[in-house]
Amino acid sequence: MTIKKTCFYLILFFLISKSNAQTKAFAIHTVAFYNFENCFDTINDPVTNDEEWTPTGSQHWDTKKYHQKLENLARVLSEIGTGENPNSPTFIGGAEIENQDVLEDLIKQPKLIDKEYGIIHFDSPDKRGIDVALLYQKKQFQPTSYINIPLYVYKGEQPVKETPKTDAVENIETEDVIQVNTKNYRVYTRDQLLVTGFLNGEEIHIIVNHWPSRSGGEKKTSPFREAAGALNRKIIDSLQHINPNAKVITMGDLNDSPFNNSVKKALGARGKMQEVGELGIYNPFEEMANKGLGTIAFRDSWDIFDQVMVSGSLLQKDYSSFQYWKAGIYNKPFLIQKSGKYKGYPLRHSLTEIGFSDHFPVYIYLIKEKR
User: Which DSSP state fits 262?
Assistant: First the structure.
């Protein structure tokens, strides 16, 4: 064969290959997580410490402010990931949610109602009454089981005390104060929510988390979050014991960065795909943290507390089933404080303005080749 003919066939081969690649179509689903920050109704619950979020409380929380908060959250949730997926998230993990009624009001907002979200929620032992939950589009996902798994952690002999805020990274300001049972010293915190079901006919497991806060100091409270990471790993191990190919997504506000022991050691997450085995966990937000990106800020220091991670079974090259594609932080300009002391920070609620949250939402995409 002449050189000219060889070149011709090579060019033809690449053109055909490119044409075939361009004709491939993929189904895509967005999986999002958002800390709703103090998503309370206006009614005083006698069994939780929610008094400040009532009309007579320190936040002067009333019906008008409550509905504005819901409207703001609905705007964010409806737009996460729509830059590359026209549909709003199929799954939304949420934290700092007072109760089921708040979620029912949220999914009825004009920007969300046509998505027909279902709700999976349990009340947790948290003394402020804030829980985690999962919203899902009922047309896309059919849950088959769900359970809230408690985290049992204890504080020695004395309740955790506040320590001076001397380090921006270790002591991010939070209203999420560690609370301890004075009889048995159990630390009150959120359960971990495990949901299993079928996404367009394919089994998926989702864990929603809100790990113990840093109230009292990062170092002193780190063991609580390490215990949360170990519990998360135990849940994943149990799923993989039943099915080594189980597709697991774990997400939440971890109150730790991708580099802390709770994530790197207790959970065993890795920031590089090539280091993740089929039973391992991949954390795409480690690379973002390395680049200086963040979901929460304190004293001009950014960190990524909000993360979505996937099992190695979602990192395969065979797109005949759902696989991880990529991840992102949703930090559009309307979510950012424009002026003042906290310019550039997430636009949160204040006494004079109903913002969004002190966290930016995060998300990943799942894709599957259409046949």
Answer: I
